[in-house]
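Dear colleagues,

As part of the handover before I leave the project, I'm documenting each prediction I ran so the next person doesn't have to rerun anything. This entry is a single chain, and its sequence is reproduced below.
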Amino acid sequence: LLAFSPVPVIIWGAFYFQRKASPLYSGVRDRVGRLASRLANNIGGIVTIKSFTAEQAELERLVRESDAYVEANRKAIAVSSAFVPVIRMAVLAGFLLTFIVGGVQALNGDLNVGAYGVLVFLTQRLLWPLTQLATTVDLFERAMASVKRILDLMEEQPGVRDDGTRDLPQPLQGRVTFDGVSFTYPHAAAGIRDISFEAAAGKTLALVGATGSGKSTLIKLLLRFYSPNQGAIRVDEVSIEEVPLKQLRAAIGLVSQDVFLFEGSVRDNIAYGKPGATDAEIEDVARQAEAWSFIKALPRGLDTLVGERGVKLSGGQRQRLSL
């Protein structure tokens, strides 16, 4: 019983430490995430930073994020470093108590010397592994802080349900109809209201408006990145909410204002929407986008690596490949 006397203290300490450390390690993960984000932004925007000679300002921002991370880590380590000695002291107290009481009983003849030796040995073997409990709990809390961020992301429910079962008519004509569509982004005051128009098949339609008036939002609604608050959007008279997302988006080609190329070859990026495309098909669409002239002039043609986000190509070349 004496050997087990520190166990309640150790268990209580473990639960107490868990309650204290959990929010602290969550704060550490949050701070390191912000620091990593700041670093990624600075590296990605290094040309802009240098062109505006803003190196010192960005350095100061980075230092502030780094200092905040250091402070969050310091608080977590302070709790962790206090917990480890408490556990070891409790284990030592239990061992000394057994050692002293057993020794007194052995001197008084109440306990055989051999049994006393076995008792001391077993007590040491029993209690010493508990000293690792502090380290184990600390590592567990550090890991759970990261796992919680991942689980929170995985538990996030999609805002658009993919439960459509109706196929688009074949062959697809491409007539797009917006009928009384209204939409407002979450936590935003302004949005689009009662928008109605028809984009005829085979025709070009330009949406003209002031910056922020909702032109890009209409395209996002057509692709069902969001669902309208009211109204209906139809493709060839079929409501897009009745069509599976994969089929709907496969029927639409989007060239965003913010061009994004994946790390890989020119071939990989052109055929991204159709992985099994032949070289003839790739060349055909490259000619249509007026990109073939510069592609064939590249060192390895279609097999030329574009780099991360297409950094090895010029801005105009990235635009052409995106088309």
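The radius of gyration is 33 Å. Residues 263 and 307 are 5 Å apart (CA to CA).

All the best with the project,
I.
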